[in-house]
Design goal:
This protein is mainly alpha-helical and 190 residues long. The protein is built from 10 helices and 2 strands. Helix content is 52%, strand content 2%.
């Protein structure tokens, strides 16, 4: 029984099954999970499990694609390489002249190995990375909390003048400059 289960997974979607697991409960994929009920119900009555497991692709492929999208670029490159190797794995059966579904050849163990690599990549990608050292600011550049860098100070450092979008009464904290360059009081009656 374990061999038939392994053959079913490897001969149907292989690494895509493993890649789909982290995203199966994502809200967009969750709606598709009902599709798996008839697929897995068929396993109870027997038949060609590997072929019927392929009918899970409307759930497995979007979930796997979502997982692949969430990976960082370096892990994504590793996963694309693993998926490309899985794509070539049937050639092992062709080379061994074992192209049958009932007694598959070396493609099953090779794909199981690639599925293990996929699981290892997903575990490695989910582990927290090394803490990055903060990059020192170049000399003469103020720190983020220094005046002139955060929003409060940037607004205070802007040139004093009449903003055509604001009424003078709204700008109580900034003097209004008259056309001749003298500061005028913006408050009514002032």
């Amino acid at each position: 029984m374990p061999y038939f289960l392994a053959a079913m997974l490897t001969l149907s979607l292989g690494c895509w099954w493993v890649l789909a697991v982290p995203s199966l409960w994502h809200r967009d994929v969750r709606r598709l999970l009902l599709w798996l009920v008839p697929v897995f119900a068929q396993f109870l009555i027997g038949g060609d499990w590997g072929r019927f497991a392929l009918y899970a692709f409307p759930v497995v492929i979007p979930a796997a694609a979502l997982t692949l999208q969430r990976l960082r670029s370096r892990w994504r490159a590793v996963m694309v390489t693993v998926l490309a190797l899985q794509l070539l794995s049937p050639l092992l059966d062709v080379a061994a002249n074992r192209m049958t579904l009932n007694r598959p050849g070396p493609a099953v163990p090779a794909t199981l190995g690639l599925m293990a690599v996929t699981a290892a990549v997903l575990v490695g990608a989910s582990l927290p990375g090394r803490a990055r050292r903060p990059v020192p600011e170049p000399a003469g550049v103020p720190a983020p909390s220094a005046p002139g860098r955060d929003q409060e100070h940037v607004l205070a450092d802007e040139p004093v003048g009449r903003d055509p979008l604001q009424e003078p009464a709204e700008r109580d904290d900034h003097p209004v400059v008259s056309p001749d360059g003298r500061a005028a009081d913006a408050r009514p009656g002032g």
